Amino acid sequence: MLLKLASRSLLSRKVNVGLTVFSISISIFIMLAIGHVKNEAKASFTSVVSGVDLIVGARTGQINLLLYSIFRIGQPTNNISWESYQALSARKEVAWTIPISLGDSHKGFRVLGTSSRYFSHFKYGNKRELVFSNGEQFNRPFDVVLGADVARSLQYSLGDKITLSHGVASTSFSEHANNPFTVVGILKPTGTSVDQTLHVPLEGIEAIHSGWQSGVNLSQKLSSNDLDKVNLTPKTITAFMVGLKSKMATFTFQRQVNQFQPEALMAILPGVSLAELWRMMGVIEGILLFISSLVLLAALIGMSTMMLTAIRERRKEFFVLRVIGASPWFIMCLIQAEAILITLLGMCVAILLLWTGILFSQDLLASHFGFFLSLNIFNREMLMSLALVLVIVLFVSCIPAISSTRHAQL
Amino acid sequence: MIQLSNLHKYYGDKNRQLHVLKGIDVTIEEGELTAIMGSSGSGKSTLLNILGILDHFDEGRYLLDQQEITKLTEKQAAYFRNKFIGFVFQSFNLLSFKNATENVALPLYYQKVGRRERNKKAAELLEMVGLGDRAEHMPNQLSGGQKQRVAIARALVTNPRVILADEPTGALDSKTTQEIMQLFKEVHGQGKTIVIVTHEKEIADACERLIVLRDGQIANTTSKVSPL
After folding, report:
1. Are residues A301 and A322 in the same domain?
2. Does some domain include residue B35?
3. Which of A125, A300, A369, B136 is the most buried (most CB within 10 A)?
4. pLDDT per residue over B7-37, tens digit each?
5. How many CB atoms lie within 10 A of CB B85?
């Protein structure tokens, strides 16, 4: 009855209540969105690479190396010569290496040139291996293996022919149109940047760039016979991942890379760099959470003010309730029930807004930033924050609730 | 039924105190139909609010059905109002967002009567006041006279011993006034004690007893043999 009375009373003041619900929903939306993006980013960060002991690239900041090699964000500062890669790979501490060559794209998705070891040694999440949903790994220079999101968004299937673009912009005027690649495999979703990547052999990358100078295409189409004649050993790669025989050798090998004489290289521990990157994000996250809390508090105080103003206009209503036998406690509960209903409605609107926002931005974020946002926004932390909001509402609505008992007299 | 002894009521603080009721002594018997008249500011509405336990008094004694109504908590006052008293106001005081049945049934909620029983009783009362066919109408879909009938039905739904009416016909035309007074007559016929505050002489004339207030005191009390 209390809730029915509260909801009917709210319905009779649609405009005021609607505006209040809107302002609260925006505040809760901001709070939920920040929390969700933080959680997703953290999950994505921690699961993006696993079982890789070191990542080696040209000397730069460790965050930059991590971003371009793992998240496919940003640009490498320099390449590593094939000779240096071979020399370091041949060290006795090294169990395996996965070369990475970046720089090309296909319709906004990054292309990763690598070796077949990528499919056997690269792991994500809790040491989970890459699994094919269709087809198999590449065997020929012009084979391509698609990440799950690439295949889904571009509706590609096995056997489709695609051409790569020079550079990483979504629209490129420098197409490697002479040498199309054939889709031979599609990976199962991983929830990491792998899903938004096209994987091609290093030889394929070398082949399509054969005859290019300073980003300009001087080449012709390469036939199978041509491929046999051309030396497809890469001259440079962007970075490489390293698996060591023993974890004990990690810091020794890292020092050897950092002091490598022929060229300036650096090796990073992915876990340490991920933690550092997360700490940097943590400061921003803290600031955003603080701002969202202030926005929320402002909205809740706004609601309290709206109710306080409305109470002066609702003197007659409270008087009637008092006349027919309602206790002051009932009237206070009525006001608090109204505040809770407004907030719950605001929460529902906020959740719908967030879901809509995720649905509309999911593909864009995935293809442009390699960031996958799931629709599952509920977790313990989120539910706790919503419960906390309701507790705050109970406190904030005490002011109008107490005031209502005083205004129940004509 | 109602017994007031040396009742005083003040408004304002000690420095600027307004003495509104100055020692009211009155007894209203059960089943009596009483009108209270007086000019504006004479204290008649204050007296009615005190009778309805909507306002406190400062000195004196108030007995309602032999029970002491002094220094009650708001919760106790709510209980007494709900159990003993039904109210009818000049401005009807219906909840705008509830239909006629819901308005009439609401007081029963505070007596913890179940919804089905509440609606049944409300329907009976609306039938009694001649609004059986307006049960689902919202207040803004009813005329002034119909609203007042709904208000009377609401006042009667808990079967109170006392009905207090503050200018119940003040906002109605003369034809509707007669209809409403006829309704009060029927209610009175059921043995209810009714106290009506009014400015209208015709209403006062229709009552068994008239109490005239002047400047916070009882100026005159008149009893008649055949009311209405």
Report:
1. yes
2. yes
3. A300
4. 999 888 767 788 889 999 999 999 899 999 9
5. 24
Query: Average pLDDT in the B190-209 region?
Result: 89
What pLDDT digit, counting tens, does each position of B31-84 carry?
Answer: 899 999 998 888 888 999 999 998 888 899 999 888 888 878 888 888 888 888
Domain around A324: 2-45+282-406
**Subunit contact B97:A9, Cβ cutoff 8 A:** yes
For residues A268 and A133, state if they share a domain: yes
> What total number of domains does chain A contain?
2
Do A78 and A182 belong to one domain? yes
Minimal Cα–Cα distance from B101 to chain A, Å? 14
Q: Which of B79, B87, B93, B154 to mutate to test the interface with A (most CBs of A within 10 A)?
A: B93
Chain A nearest-CA residue for B104: A324
Q: Is residue B107 part of a domain?
A: yes
pTM score:
0.67
Of A8, A320, A326, the CB nearest to B93: A320
For residues A109 and A220, state if they share a domain: yes
Q: In this complex, which of A9, A325, A405 lies closest to B82 when CB atoms are compared? A: A325
Closest CB to B78: pick one of A8, A12, A327. A327
Domain span holding position B41: 31-56+74-223
Q: Which residues of B touch A (CB under 8 A)?
A: 52, 54-55, 74-75, 78-79, 81-83, 87, 91, 93-98, 106-107, 109-111, 154, 158
Integer angstrom CA distances of residue B8 from A38, B18, B82, B216 = 67, 11, 25, 9
- A322·B107 Cβ contact <8 A: no
Rounded distance, CA A199 to CA A186, Å? 10
* A207 in the same domain as A65: yes
Q: Contact B97/A324, CB-based, under 8 Å?
A: no
Total domain count, chain B: 1
Sign of the alpha-carbon dihedral angle for A160, A164, A170, A172: negative
User: Distance between CA A218 and CA A213 in Å, rounded?
Assistant: 7
Mean pLDDT of chain B: 88
Looking at the predicted complex, does its ipTM rise above 0.85? no
Residue B26 lies in a domain: no
Distance from C-alpha of A148 to C-alpha of A54, rounded to nearest angstrom: 26
Task: Note whether A39 and A74 are same-domain residues.
Answer: no
How many CB pairs (< 8 A) connect A and B?
55
B179, pLDDT greater than 90: no
Contact: A324, B55; criterion CB under 8 Å = no
What is the rounded distance in angstroms from the CA atom of residue A139 to the CA atom of residue B150?
87
Query: Which CATH number does the domain housing residue B118 bear?
Result: 3.40.50.300
Please tell me the predicted confidence (pLDDT) of residue A78: 86
Neighbours of A2 (CB within 10 A): 13
What distance in Å separates residue A327's CA from the closest CA in chain B? Answer: 5
Residues A147 and A229 in one domain: yes
**For an interface test with A, which of B72, B80, B110, B117 has the most A Cβ atoms less than 10 Å from its Cβ?**
B110
